[in-house]
Amino acid sequence: MTDKPRLIDADKLLKWLNGKIEVNSEPYNDYRIERAIAYEDLKGEVESCSFDPDPLQQPNIQPGDRVVSISKPGLGTGVVVDLVKENLDKFTDRTWVRFGNDEHAMHTRTSDLQLIQNEGEEV
After folding, report:
1. By Cβ atoms counted within 10 A, which residue in 49, 82, 91, 95 is the most buried?
2. Which residues contact 29 (CB under 8 A, 6 or more apart)?
3. What separation in angstroms does the CA of 50 have from each of 9, 11, 42, 105, 112?
């Protein structure tokens, strides 16, 4: 198995499970009914998103890091001033960033920032 997650089409899996449930729901014997119940359980888990991939992890952004805003790339390179890890209305984390020569400063979602890894890297 690889380290890369294998993403599947949940709708195709549900269609396949529905076919298996239909075939195994005929009352031929207890074995087929038990198998249909197992398919029903799996279908319920897929429908409840139990197997959905984890969200992408953001790099660990710290004060002093150079970043670019994904939604407002025209601001250029900014420097992280502060991180706020408290609940501000609908967002759970915000980052205070200054862009340019302190010409523009803003609070933004940390997920809206792209960390500049190398000194020469620009987006």
Report:
1. 95
2. none
3. 14, 14, 10, 40, 26
**What b/e sequence results for 46-56 when a residue is b if at least 16 CB atoms lie within 10 Å of its CB, and e otherwise?**
beeeeeeeeee
DSSP codes joined into one string, 32-56: HHHHHHHHHHHHHHHHTTTTPPPPP
Exposed/middle/buried for 98, CB within 10 Å: 0-12, 13-18, 19+? middle
Only one residue has tokens 């899996």, namely 13
Q: Which residues contact 6 (CB under 8 A, 6 or more apart)?
A: none
How many other β-carbons are positioned within 10 Å of the β-carbon of residue 77? Answer: 15
List 96's β-bridge partners, or say none. Answer: 82, 107
Are residues 113 and 102 in contact, defined by beta-carbon separation less than 8 angstroms? no
Which pLDDT value is given to residue 41? Answer: 92
Identify the pLDDT of residue 123: 43
Specify the residue for token string 């025209």. Answer: 74
